[in-house]
User: Fold this.
Amino acid sequence: MTIVIGFEGSANKIGIGIVRDGEVLSNPRRTYITPPGQGFLPSQTAKHHRGVILTVLKEALQEAGLKPADIDCVAYTKGPGMGAPLVTVAIVARTVAQLWDKPLLGVNHCVGHIEMGRLVTHASNPTVLYVSGGNTQVIAYSERRYRIFGETIDIAVGNCLDRFARVIKISNDPSPGYNIEQMAKKGKRYIELPYTVKGMDVSFSGILSYIEEAAEKMLGSGECAAEDLCFSLQETLFAMLVEITERAMAHCGSQEVLIVGGVGCNLRLQEMMGIMCEERGARLFATDERFCIDNGAMIAQAGWEMFRSGQQTELSDSWVTQRYRTDEVEVTWRD
Amino acid sequence: MRAAVMAACSDTQDSVPGRLHFFLNVPFPSEREASIALGSLAPDSEPRKGGISKEMCTAGNILNVKWSADEARILRVSVGSFLDHLALVLETMLEFGPPVPL
Assistant:
């Protein structure tokens, strides 16, 4: 029996989760929500996390019904992500690992999403679409690495959505993407936007510039409603993601797709991906908001796999890093 | 647990003229706890490579931190950030300590 506690706080969510042999025992989380029109900055986000992290840690232990002595390993997010919040969370993880005399494990945030997706959905070897506010990658496993087949060459798809939400000043509660999704359902007009797939990769910064300008012009003149722009933006962005996912599937001969990351909660994205999968005779796997959105249990789960395959992080190597490629990790727990 | 913080500031000891220095000496209830604090705070290097350096070590139950900076502004930011992190370590120790016997 192996019990791992995982600490995650690379963006505006701070979550701590406990996993025991594939079972999620607890997974409490808090989100730092900024007022409409504002994004979250590193120092303010870190301050938010500092304020709640010990409470969330206590909750994680209480909900799991465990004492620190029961924990076998302390896992935390090494990166990628925002510097200040990453450091805040790592500091607590290092401290409790030393207080409790437990081994420490630095986990790659993207690998955390993938391992939690695999655990929850039981997908055997899927093409993974990892889409969030900070990341957009198409990933497939091959020979001990999660290889990046395609990715954004500028901003993440979730970042494009979040920044558009700021332009039209919609609420960030529970998340800007969720509110765009609800508004998109009421969209009636399709407004053509740039479509920027570059081979296996995608680009979103041009679409963002375009729609920011379009919003000012068209909303100002009453030519269209914000709902129409939300709808059009989703249709465009998601079609691009479906295209590059399909391209990777064709390369790998894959019959499974797994969507992970906060944007993976979006039901329209799941619907569009589902249509493509059906056309190819492939299966689509997705998780719900408990695990799509950044959480501690996903770090614990990746940590569980790493720990059981013999990995450990020395304190002196436990520094965090804003840049940490998914394919830098040696996936020692898979063949 | 009490961790009284004593700070001293001097600009005389380094060979580089005009460099600012800041010293922090933090006593802990035990040598082990000072060493735990060092373990938690040392791994991440200064975000800004130029203009500031920081050295940390323990001497018995005291955590010693020494900063050298070119500008007061950079020094302030680094010390302020460190104190926030130190406070977090102390709170964590209060909530989840004392350290288990080895």
Q: What stands out?
A: The domain at 123-290 of chain A is CATH 3.30.420.40 (Nucleotidyltransferase; domain 5). The mean pLDDT of chain A is 97. The radius of gyration of chain A is 20 Å. The interface with chain B takes residues 47, 50, 53-54, 57-58, 68-69, 83, 87-88, 90-92, 94-96, 98-101, 315-320 of chain A (CB under 8 Å).
